[in-house]
Amino acid sequence: MADTDPAGPVMDRDEVDRALARLGQEHEAIETSLLALQDHAGRRLLEGARLTGVTAERWTSTEAAITLLWTYFDAYTDVLRRAREIRARRRWSSREDLVELTELLRGEPVTVAGSAAATAGAPTPHGGQAGPGVLSERWSLSALVDRMNELYASSLDMVVAADAVWSALPARIDLLSAELRRTSRLAHSVGVRPGEHPAGDDLERITRTLKKLREQVVSDPLAYWKPAEGSSAPGGGKPDTTVYDREARALEDVRREIDAVLAVRQDAEKRIVRLRDVLSRADRTLAEARTARGEVLAKIAATEVPVVSGPPTALQEQLSTAAEYRRHAQWHRLSPLLESLEQKAEDELLRARESLTAVTAPLAVRAELRGRLDAYRAKVSRHGLAEDPLLVERYEKARRMLWSAPCDLRAAEQAVLRYQQAVAELLGAAPGVPGQGAGPDERRGPGT
Questions:
Q1: Are residues 340 and 242 part of one domain?
Q2: At 359, is the secondary structure helix, strand, or coil?
Q3: Distance between CA atoms of 375 and 150, rounded to whole angstroms?
Q4: How far is the C-alpha of 372 from the C-alpha of 195, rounded, in Å?
Q5: Domain contains 6
Q6: 318: Cα within 13 Å, side-chain hemisphere
Q7: Residue 259: how many CB atoms within 10 A of its CB?
Q8: How far apart are CA 275 and CA 162, in angstroms?
Q9: Which tens digits make up the pLDDT trace of 130-160?
Q10: Residue that is last in its domain, among 157, 183, 207
Q11: Residue 448 buriedness (CB in 10 A; 0-12 / 13-18 / 19+)
């Protein structure tokens, strides 16, 4: 929609013709814009909707503005028709005709009832607002076009914004609601229900929120419109999807939770069997550790042997509970219980193995001493010193200590060390220092 020229002196015929041509083009453009606004799908929806909130307030003023637009347009059309009629009287217009045309084209020939302008909150031609006490108002064609441009832009902005929200959000909410219903049915089938599982509570809350959101979007679309910053174009902005996006993310979280429950349902039996196997291995390891402790106490003297705990009865009870959950298809309860049990069962097996290692450590030390003694005996034999009296004496003494029960490990270790020292002296090597580990030959084994 364009602007007319400002007022000036009496126009000549050429100026009048040019002004009428321009006004005719403006008239056609304005009429096209108004008809497009009248036929706009958003305007028709607003007319038939039960509106609330900010949308109801703005639509009341927008309806009045659209009515006023047509009133202004009709008045504008009348003035343009009169001007055309005057210009058509003669091929060469008289001065009286030109004066009258100048008054129509550059003066304030348009008179509009003040009540119509007051309804739409229109300003007067000289500034201020048209109030109920104003009987009429006068406009120049230029000022009237500017005012129609303003009313058209604000009306189109409101219509386009409402239509954009209605076009975007309700359909997306409906799709999300359909997905929500499918998810709720699936959740119910695996025992995820409100009051029994947090995901069930989330589904119930999302359902309430989406229902309320749709009602608000339908009745008050402008409450969910974000105007573009710095934009003056009608309809500049986008729908506010903050609430929708939040609930969509929440539903996706619930879907992942239900998928995890479904995964539990699919492999629950295998996981329970695997848990039983791990706990059984832990029990057997602890039983072996208890047996080994008795053997150590019988065969090894003067040593501390740790106490072996009993089987993990609490874990067995929880495993029985897990099997019960599986039988009754309580997958939402089974899922976290299995995850906890799997970690605890692995920890229990590790503890049992550590207990067995700690209990059998003295036997391992004795076996190591026996192996070392025999290795040095073989080394001595290779060097032809097996019959040396000192070596025979010290070997037999260490051997009796290591193969007798109960075995004093500290005394046996000293006896083996003395045998090593004697061997080293005979072979011309320095003996190892007690408590600092074996030398390179000893680590590799004698005779290497």
A1: no
A2: helix
A3: 107
A4: 68
A5: no
A6: 19
A7: 12
A8: 59
A9: 555 556 778 888 888 889 999 999 999 999 9
A10: 157
A11: exposed
